[in-house]
Write a structure and sequence with these properties.
Blueprint: H1 2-14, H2 26-33, H3 37-49, E1 53-56, E2 60-63, H4 68-88, H5 95-113, H6 117-133, H7 138-150, H8 152-155, H9 162-180, H10 184-193, H11 196-210
Antiparallel strand pairs: 1-2
Length: 217
């Protein structure tokens, strides 16, 4: 039950059912998801560890609300980690893994076409977990996964932008092609090209909500 509750809550946070900065009340979650209090608390702890929730003194549990500066810092770290993984990946990659990634990318493309955004999200997660497992360093892959999960709610702000999603689909296939090839430079370029757009979109969204105030304002 706890795993399912954590996944359901994660989905609802990422897709805005619980908006950034909003409090999440244990009793409300218990009622909404028909869950026991201990399961709710376990789910909260797991989502805190993923960077989606934060516990504030005298205010309770809230959905994390990143400033643009925090998003920039997060994406700087992601670029460093994901570039490092690309540089350590032995090429060409195992054909079975390339075929699996190609299949995930195709199903992701179909989900985008169908506007099944929750499937889009989970297929994207699966794609990158398989991709970065090829780097040969499980600790590095784990760090990449941790920072990617923290960025979840940042990425989805562009899901309804058709042009952006066409670019994402194309970039997935660029990564697959690079993993099937023997050019480390091509893989690094494909990985780096895949990161910046969501962070830029989040900044624009934030500024529409709050103006151009900074994190220190």
């Amino acid at each position: 039950m706890t795993v399912s509750l954590t996944t359901d809550l994660q989905d609802d946070i990422i897709f805005g059912v619980y908006a950034p900065g909003n409090r999440i009340i244990e009793d409300s979650v218990m009622e909404r998801y028909n869950a026991k209090r201990h399961a709710v608390r376990n789910a909260f702890s797991e989502l805190e560890s993923q960077g989606l929730l934060i516990r504030r003194p005298n205010r309770g549990v809230e959905v994390v609300d990143f400033t643009p500066e925090e998003v920039d810092a997060l994406y700087d770290v992601r670029i460093i980690l994901e570039t490092a993984a690309a540089k350590r990946t032995i090429l060409p990659c195992d054909p079975a893994i390339v075929a699996r990634l190609d299949d995930i990318a195709r199903r992701h493309s179909e989900a985008v076409h169908d506007q099944n955004f929750r499937a889009v999200y989970w297929l994207n997660q699966e794609f990158h977990e398989v991709q970065f497992a090829t780097c040969g360093n499980p600790r590095l892959a784990e760090l990449i996964g941790t920072h990617a999960r923290t960025a979840q709610s940042i990425r989805v702000v562009k899901y309804q932008d058709a042009e952006h999603m066409r670019t994402v689909i194309s970039q997935h296939f660029d990564i697959v092609a690079a993993l099937a090839g023997d050019s480390q430079d091509a893989l690094v370029a494909a990985v780096q090209a895949h990161l910046p757009a969501s962070a830029e979109a989040y900044r624009k969204l934030y500024e529409r909500r709050f103006g151009s105030r900074s994190a220190t304002a």
